[in-house]
Amino acid sequence: MTAPTRTPVTAAPAVPAVPGVDPARWPDVAAVPRAPVRAAAAGLLLRRAVRQRGLRVERPDDRLPDSRLPDAPATDGAAADGPVLRLHRPDAFRHRVGAGGLIGFGEAYQAGDWDAPDLVGLLTALATAPETLVPAGTARLRPLVLRRPPATELGTVENAQRNIRRHYDLSNELFGLFLDPTMTYSSAIFPLGPDGSPQAEWSGLATAQRRKIDRLLDLAAVGPGSRVLEIGTGWGELALRAAGRGATVVSLTLSEEQLALARRRIADAGHAGAVDVRLCDYRQVRGQYDAVVSVEMIEAVGRRYWPVYFATLDRVLAPGGRVALQSITMPHERMLASAGTYTWIHKYVFPGGQIPSARALAQAAARHSGLMLAGSHGYGPHYAQTLRLWRERFAERADELAALGFDQVFRRTWELYLAYSEAGFRSGYLDVRQLLLTRPGEVDPRPGPGGGA
């Protein structure tokens, strides 16, 4: 993994602080910034979070030299059974959060400055109404303390492949550690229990993933003879399912690792003649298609490129065709508030992306194409369960990471990423939706055979 080389803004030079962390690979994790004033402010924010969310803060023994955290007493307003934030290096934690905000919070976890016995529970408490964690009236100061995405990560044709490769080309074997045999890296749809909640077990994950894919293909009315364009191949499962219905598929990816494995899986299944997997940017595709499908790819496009994305969908969609998208979404006002902010996820996991709102997608389609939103179905609780299964599987097989060349900082990075994502869906901060786009008056907007989403 190629680690970013940017260093957070600090009040004084950073100093090496974390033995065992490779400073060449993880420069901003290996060094703790010194920002006394901001560190004090971070302590005050932690005190506020403890009171608001009923957290408990556990610290090292007070006799240790870095153990004092006077701005956030462990018992100040905390619930006896609230989520636990376990601080191993409180001073480093405060300085990282003070200097880097949420990026510093994530880097403190990567470095081992803190952990939690129930990481998802802690992050869910923090993700619930996150705007209330900051005192009222301070929102106008956000532009002064938050970083902007670097130009090198914007979703241009030149940058997009590099952004994708930083995540998806890490190693097919890495993803194989925690994904089910379909190698599907998006939300499944599980059967519902008597209480209406998704019933998620590892043994049923592959079936739940195929159920999700089939509903999306139904939404796009994919059947015998359909010409299908898939934007974002993944590891080929959707293309396989579409070919199994008698469709011909052109599938686009920017990941060489995914390209190789998807082609192999498709050939092994006997569908090489029906599926053409290409290393190609969505903006460069040509042809006309009866159905365009894309699963959780638009999040990587970036907000400023939504106009060209929807114009491309409109250009390649044949008369009477359907577009079926699956997208992670967030509330519209939160999307507007966070737009243009450089986050820990951008820096270490998904560079260049932007999670949209459902309203923003409908508006972008209407303004920049002849398409309109004809259907929308959300099922965020299913994503929380999908992520739980991935996270548990990743933890069970974490010892195998070293054999693939990934160190302990990488392991903690992905622990936090998976838990952070799960918390977003458990808190309701995030949702996932299947969307149908059509041209007004051209087709019946109801799903095709199978009932749709």
Question: Could you please describe the fold and organization of this structure?
Answer:
The chain is of the alpha/beta class and 453 residues long. It folds into two domains: 12-147, no CATH class; 153-438, 3-Layer(aba) Sandwich (Rossmann fold), CATH 3.40.50.150. Helix content is 40%, strand content 15%. Strands 8-7-6-9-10-12-11 form a seven-stranded mixed beta sheet, sandwiched between helices. Strands 3-4-5 form a three-stranded mixed beta sheet. Strands 1-2 form a two-stranded antiparallel sheet. Strand 7, helix 10 (256-268) and strand 8 form a beta-alpha-beta unit. Helix 3 packs across helix 16 (408-426) and helix 4 crosses helix 16 (408-426). The longest helix has 22 residues, at 90-111. Residues 1-14, 62-78 and 448-453 have low confidence and may be disordered.
